[in-house]
Task: inverse folding
């Protein structure tokens, strides 16, 4: 139980809410009711759990916060409606994490990576065009308490909105991003050397892919490196088109493969040898043998289709975002994240790479079916996304101890994942809401789109399912904050992965921009 008077009130409220929401339902709901409100994850899937139709019924253990922390006043992960109305949310919430320094700038796009003592702030198109210095902002974090902008990258790909495409390969010291525009783009990629001076990236492909008159044949929304850094994979969402860009010579990027992989292609993860891709799709994972690309003769064009070796679909969450390969006691596992439908983060045993076995999940209380009405009512009027996981990072790939995730309106969440059968939350930081600052943040996707789209439409399928199954009601879902158009910025959107830099996390949330966060010693042990 979290210490502090505010949390005692939370516990009383939560117990009352559980009593109200407990009701008969399907067999799945009955299983959930056995553990409802305990906030303790099961050590294995519940008896009879169906990996396709099942909904993980429990939340992770709550963190034990320090005296003086600004703890959450509602359910775990929730920014309550009362806090939004009263502007309490503009103070933010923290537990075992402290803000060290910040560069807010003009706000941030979805995925902003870091490298050594530098951060790269994703651009949002077309919002960034309405502010000064359109493009990707480079921030020097040599002094985490005083981050300083040192450069603006203005190539077409960088001004054109990098969305979820901007990634860093630490081994090669490369920064790559593609021009996505608004949701989906084509043709432009920029590759920078950041190995010598990360605060001043040096463009390597000065012609192909970077000049307006020299595009390359890719569609893009997201992308990532192969483990060896010789290939950049660009995914273009619908209709599932993916391109492999050979960057073994980063001055001359060349598309060596492109093709359809299914109905949708999002982010991805790889086995360490680069031969197997776990490609996120609309409802799970497409598992692809990409060894022909990985082991190609350099610059050789691959023309044949890449074989699918398996797939994994589920209905607990959707719009799968990306995956992270890890091992426990030498056995291969895969963390994968759903950005819609309260699916949270799943851990799969992939000893059989073509047939992942669901081992456990990380969810917050606000993601449980019995709280789906609270999920909808408290986030009403703050844009299309509510309380869903988006991007995660591990402190290490082998026997990981900590996982840090961006959880959109729930902020930054940190979990102890050292026991693969029992995750628990150990810290969180939900930054101060920037209510009323739309015009000051033209590069924030949230401020741009959140000011247009009102209700949390991403995830309403999960709400409908919970209502149909009798696990929640529609009471209060429509309230005085509800609107079809116009967002209030009453909670930030955190979509970028929090990246470990020793005992610090470097992360960018859309309205607050870049932040250097300090983990409490009780959480981080070297």
Result:
């Amino acid at each position: 139980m979290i210490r502090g008077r505010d949390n005692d009130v939370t516990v009383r409220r939560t117990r009352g809410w559980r009593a109200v929401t407990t009701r008969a339902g399907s067999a799945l709901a009955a299983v959930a009711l056995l553990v409802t409100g305990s906030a303790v994850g099961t050590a294995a899937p519940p008896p009879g759990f169906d990996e396709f139709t099942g909904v993980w019924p429990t939340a992770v253990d709550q963190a034990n916060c320090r005296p003086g922390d600004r703890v959450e006043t509602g359910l775990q992960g929730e920014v309550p409606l009362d806090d939004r109305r009263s502007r309490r949310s503009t103070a933010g919430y923290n537990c075992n994490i402290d803000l060290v320094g910040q560069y807010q700038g003009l706000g941030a796009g979805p995925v902003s990576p870091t490298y050594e003592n530098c951060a790269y702030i994703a651009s949002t198109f077309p919002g960034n065009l309405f502010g000064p210095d359109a493009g990707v902002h480079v921030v020097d974090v040599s002094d985490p308490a005083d981050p300083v902008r040192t450069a603006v990258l203005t190539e077409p790909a960088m001004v054109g909105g990098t969305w979820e495409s901007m990634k860093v390969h630490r081994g090669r010291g490369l920064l790559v991003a593609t021009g996505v525009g608004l949701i989906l783009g084509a043709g432009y990629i920029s590759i920078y050397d950041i190995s010598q001076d990360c605060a001043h990236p040096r463009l390597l492909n000065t012609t192909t892919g970077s000049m307006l008159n020299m595009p390359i044949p890719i569609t893009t929304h997201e992308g990532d490196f192969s483990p060896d850094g010789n290939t950049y994979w660009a995914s273009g969402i619908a209709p599932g088109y993916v391109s492999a860009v050979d960057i073994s010579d980063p001055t001359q990027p060349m598309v060596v493969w492109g093709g359809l992989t299914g109905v949708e292609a999002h982010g991805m993860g790889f086995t360490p040898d680069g031969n197997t891709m776990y490609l996120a799709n609309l409802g799970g994972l497409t598992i692809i043998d990409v060894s022909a690309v990985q082991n190609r003769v350099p610059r050789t064009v691959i023309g044949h289709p890449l074989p699918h070796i398996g797939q994994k679909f589920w209905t607990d969450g959707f719009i799968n975002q990306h995956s992270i390969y890890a091992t426990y006691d030498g056995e291969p596992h895969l963390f994968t994240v759903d950005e819609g439908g309260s699916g949270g983060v799943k851990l799969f045993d992939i000893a059989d790479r073509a047939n992942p076995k669901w081992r456990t999940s990380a969810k917050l209380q606000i993601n449980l079916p019995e709280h789906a009405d609270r999920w909808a009512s408290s986030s009403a009027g703050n844009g299309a996304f509510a309380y869903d996981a988006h991007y995660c990072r591990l402190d290490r790939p082998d026997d990981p101890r900590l996982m840090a995730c961006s959880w959109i309106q729930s902020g930054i969440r940190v979990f102890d994942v050292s026991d693969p059968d029992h995750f628990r939350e150990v810290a969180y930081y939900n930054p101060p809401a920037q209510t009323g600052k739309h015009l000051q943040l033209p590069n924030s996707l949230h401020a741009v789109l959140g000011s247009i789209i009102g209700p949390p439409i991403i995830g309403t399928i999960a709400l409908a399912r919970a209502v149909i199954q009798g696990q929640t009601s529609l009471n209060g879902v429509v309230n005085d904050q509800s609107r079809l158009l116009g967002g209030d910025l009453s909670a930030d959107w955190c979509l970028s992965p929090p990246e470990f830099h020793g005992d610090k996390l470097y992360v960018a949330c859309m309205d607050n921009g870049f932040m250097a966060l300090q983990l409490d010693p009780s959480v981080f042990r070297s």
Q: What stands out?
A: Residues 15 and 37 are 7 Å apart (CA to CA). The chain has eight helices and 31 strands. The mean pLDDT is 90.
